[in-house]
Write a structure and sequence with these properties.
Layout (H helix, E strand, L loop, with lengths): L1 E4 L5 E5 L12 E7 L3 H17 L3 H8 L3 H9 L7 H10 L19 E3 L1
Antiparallel strand pairs: 1-2, 2-3, 3-4
Helix pairs in contact: 2-3
């Protein structure tokens, strides 16, 4: 198993080897994914609640954002590693909300938890 540079700048691991037929196989790539940020999880939870209050399905939100229902599902489950602020703002507008960013002073945890998936 080796570590390779991902085209997006990250690192991934590949498992080399031969396929059952004996020919060379494409290495399987596993990407390093960071554990969900508790603040992001809370934000996504608030967006889901807002969608439910607006009476919209994932399919309806997807249609309005010109994407797929599965993309909305991945976003809501936190499967997309880090949604952009624009994505979050557009989702919020579709469900009748707006995003507000606040800066808080105080102690900050600088630890980042990552795992191989």
């Amino acid at each position: 198993m080796g570590v390779e540079r991902d085209p997006e700048g990250g690192f991934s691991t590949g498992t080399g080897g031969l396929s059952p037929g004996g020919a060379s196989a494409q290495p399987r790539v596993r990407k390093l994914r960071c554990a969900p940020d508790p603040y992001l999880r809370r934000l996504l939870g608030q967006l889901i609640v807002a969608r439910a209050r607006a009476g919209l399905s994932q399919q309806q939100v997807a249609f309005r954002l010109r994407t797929t229902r599965s993309a909305i599902s991945r976003l809501e489950r936190g499967r997309r590693s880090r949604p952009t602020l624009t994505t979050i703002e557009n989702y919020a507008l579709v469900v009748g909300c707006q995003v507000e960013i606040r800066i808080r002073y105080g102690q900050i945890s600088t630890m980042s938890y990552c795992s191989w998936v």
